[in-house]
């Protein structure tokens, strides 16, 4: 903004990022080990300065580290994840709901789930580094 770098609030992310989105995974169906933040933090071997800054920024965005989960050195495929969109309510809480079908933004950008693309007949494959689309 105005040539300055700053940390955006959730409301700013929703406004300038065309909404709030997240991928939701069924941890029981994951082929990798999933850990809560309390375990990830010490095992990640991140410098204390880095984790302190991460937590400070999380507080500014009203994020709760107790709700964070992740893996250690194991990639997570998004192929079976559910894409959810969040709406900030008047009380500041975020109401999350599953995305059903494509999301069109300003008639220029089309965002869809992998399942939607496959239903449309496109052969789509993805990894953490690349996307490949075939017909």
Number of continuous helical runs: 4
Helix content: 10-25%
- Which strand-content bin applies to the residues? 25-35%
Mean pLDDT: 77
Contiguous uncertain segments of 5+ residues: none
Secondary structure class reads alpha+beta
* Oligomeric grouping of the chains: single chain
- What's the arrangement of strands in the largest beta sheet? 1-4-5
Describe this structure in words.
- This protein is of the alpha+beta class and 135 residues long.
- It has a domain at 10-101.
- It is 24% helix and 26% strand.
- The chain is built from four helices and nine strands, in the order αββααβββββαββ.
- It has helices at 10-16, 37-43, 48-60, 114-119, and strands spanning 20-24, 35-36, 69-70, 82-88, 94-98, 103-105, 109-111, 123-126, 131-134.
- Strands 1-4-5 form a three-stranded antiparallel β-sheet. A two-stranded antiparallel ribbon has the order 2-3.
- The protein is globular, with a radius of gyration of 17 Å.
- The model has no long low-confidence stretch (mean pLDDT 77).
